[in-house]
Amino acid sequence: MKPLKSVVALCALLAAPAFAATQINTLDTTGYTKVAALSLEQMGLPNIGDSKVVKAVDSKCASHGVAAEQCYFRVLSIVGDASNHKNIFIEIYKK
């Protein structure tokens, strides 16, 4: 149950409205084109409002020429344990 709570907290973090990238889930990927993959290292649990992951996604979209309003991402996996997320793997899409 603890890993599930951590995933829910991370999803809430990644859906922060202050940035252009928008999180989607596996069912939403129909109609989207994958443009990149991203792997980030982040020690400890992400805090709600922590924007490092979303900023990295926005930066990757910009480097691939994807407009901010067309940038979407999906969290593939989080490697680590319930109290220390070490690696976060993300796919980046455009619509």
From TrEMBL:
The lineage of its organism: Bacteria, Pseudomonadati, Pseudomonadota, Gammaproteobacteria, Enterobacterales. This is DUF1161 domain-containing protein. It comes from the Bacteria. Keywords: Signal. Residues 1-20 form the signal peptide.
